[in-house]
Amino acid sequence: MPERTAVEKAVLAALEREPGVNLHRSPVRVDYNIAHRALTLEGEVDNIIAKRRAYGCASRIDGVDGILDKLRVHPAAVRGDGAIRTSITQALLDEPALRDCALHAYHKGIMETLRAPPDVKGVIGVMVVEGVVELTGHVGSLSHKRLAGALAWWAPGCRDVLNEMMVVPPEDDNDGEITDALRLVLEKDPLIPHAADIGIHVRRHVVTLSGSVTTEEERRQAEYDAWYLVAVHDVVNRLDVQRAAGRS
After folding, report:
1. 172 exposed, middle or buried (CB, 10 Å; 0-12, 13-18, 19+)?
2. Kind and range of the H or E run holding 203
3. Whole-angstrom distance, CA of residue 75 vs CA of residue 46
């Protein structure tokens, strides 16, 4: 094995110090291209938090101008690409906010049209390869793009989501847009029955969650949902778990 570069050593040292990343349980392979000052991260991590935090750590290292993120999330359930694709396309078909979007599924280069509304206001393409979901096409708002991405992440067996959809016409992103999109996602997540009790504050693309939920699973899922949104740089989870009597 060739000797590691100074940048690779610095990245691995930063990952060792990152509480959200466990290199002993989920090793991350690091490869640095000196000529292009580009870093590749590869491996399978525990969850979306580890994936995003690893990327954030690496991006702050001097000498890194670009990152190829090949980190995948270990799925709670192992499923084939066809089953994952079916779960995602059904979720997209069932979502009222996306009913004006045409929907195409891709498998081995063949496109299947699943919906073609008469007044098309967007086009969503879904492709799944080895558990990695790629969303292509265009939608009418950043909120629609973020919602579609969350629906893809929720599919059992999903290991990563490459949300390549364009927004037409283009929109300027801001903290308020992220707040609105996350509120929408939390309200639609069946694993978060008390979304109304969750406070959301976004500053410079850093999300802070506050308030209370009734289980640790609900607390963690709310944080996952925030990380699932594109252009979220960090998530601070200040949610309390309160198992109050009489609360439904």
Report:
1. exposed
2. strand 198-203
3. 8
CA 12/CA 21 separation, integer angstroms: 11
Enumerate residues 6+ apart whose C-beta is below 8 A from 36: 65, 66
pLDDT digits (tens, 9 = 90+) for 69-124: 999 999 988 999 999 999 999 999 999 999 999 999 999 889 999 999 999 999 99
What secondary structure letter does DSSP report for 98?
G
Residues 92, 56, 226, 175, Cα dihedral to 10°: -100
Is residue 203 packed enough to be buried (19+ CB in 10 Å), middle (13-18) or exposed (0-12)? exposed
Helix (H, G, I), strand (E, B) or coil at 4: coil
Q: pTM value?
A: 0.93
Q: Cα 169 vs. chain centroid, distance in angstroms?
A: 23
The DSSP string of 110-174 is EEEEEE--SS--EEEEEEEETTEEEEEEEES-HHHHHHHHHHHHHSTT--EEEE--EESS-----
Q: How many CB atoms lie within 10 A of CB 62?
A: 8
Whose CA is closest to 139, among 159, 167, 118, 111?
167
Q: Specify burial of residue 17 (Cβ count, 10 A radius: 0-12, 13-18, 19+).
A: exposed
Q: Is the peptide bond prior to 118 cis by the omega test (within 30 degrees of 0)?
A: no
